[in-house]
Model the fold of this input.
Amino acid sequence: MDSGGAIELGKKRNATRSNNNRSGATTKEKAHVNLTESSQMAKEANVKNLVLTHFNFTNVDEDATSAEIRKKYIGKILYAEDLMVLPLENEVHSHNSISHSHNNEHLPEIKNSSKEKLSLQNEVSITEDKKNGVRIIKSNAIPNHTVGQFPTKGNPNTITEQNKEYSIDLTPTLANKITFVYDLGIDKGRPSYVFGVAVNGVKFEPSANEYFRNIETNEPNYEWTLEPLSEEVNLGEDYNNAHVQPNGEYHYHGTPSGLVANFDKNKMTLVGWAADGFPMYYKMGYKDPMDANSGVIQLKSSYTLKQGERPGNGVSAPNGIYSGKYVRDYEYQNNYGDLDECNGRSGVTPEFPNGTYYYVVSDEFPSASRCFMGTPSNDFKIGGGRNQTQQMQNQSPQREEKPNENTPPSFANMLKRMDANNDGKISKSEAKGNIKENFQNRDKNNDGYITQNEITRRN
Done:
């Protein structure tokens, strides 16, 4: 045996040929590869099947070789003379009852780096309905830049025009609690929300309906959601960190490279709108969040890759070192970077000179946020709302309760975010976002402070 590696493929294998030496006797040789290394690689990569390749003049002693591999690896061991003719199995699954497969899902990342010009034209309109307090985004979901090749390996779908319409809050307010794009928390579960829409009308959907699967039963473990932006996960994304859903909708998982290519690096540039109504900017922001004249810097995420190894057994849950393959491989560290757990912060922006909360699309994890600080519109709920998005999980959508318009925001939450001197009230200099913008109206007794009994949501 001349090579060995951890490559995830189908269950079938080629039969090993029997070869004779010059004396006519059949030879059996143990692998010449470093089996300890191959075994460790397979363990860390959490693969279902370890494929060992060898030259066709060698009759491998499979028993002896397997015994060495079993010291670290508990999955299936396959022997193949020629990896290129090892048959693949198509794993078919469905999103909203639409069946499709990612035949090469677990092969090394396929670089869909081609730049194709679409014959379809981008159509998008973004308007304000001040009477009803909403921003309306209508789009055919066709990008205004070149895209990768579709269909392609890992993504068998063709880009088609859509009919999308979203309504988001025109004057959003920080909510009492964070809402996640996943149904089990900030870093696990099935997709629950599309995060937002880019200024060109293409949606940001950072989550993926892909998980670690039990190597014995193939059942998904929803606690371990695959990270679409990882080089270990192949979903056929193009150079825009985007691909196509079964219904033909093109969407971004991360930085839309083609869209931001001509953004001025010395300016803070709006890249989209989040489902809760707050704006999204691409990676640059003011050095002093409240001073538009303080210069522009690249804002840093506060997420880092965990150290050590995952706690799973490699069968029902992944083991191996934290590598970024799963969303849970990352953790938020308060004040590590410039941004909060939702990859955002409060401050002034070109569109909001009096200040607002805003999200940042960063080049590093999480890129597009995985949670909302405001209340997301039901138009972005996966499996529900106006758009009935196709990238969905076989589950019943949970009903999103919208707060009554007169329900006050959590004052305790506001104090946590704004009360710098811990005096139990918010001064004008401490106020952020819409509270700062509407400070005069909120400060009913004109004493220069906002207190708990003054925080009520106005119609």
About this structure: Confidence is low (pLDDT under 50) at residues 1-32, 54-58, 81-109, 388-408. The longest strand covers residues 124-129. Residues 35-45 form the longest helix (11 residues).
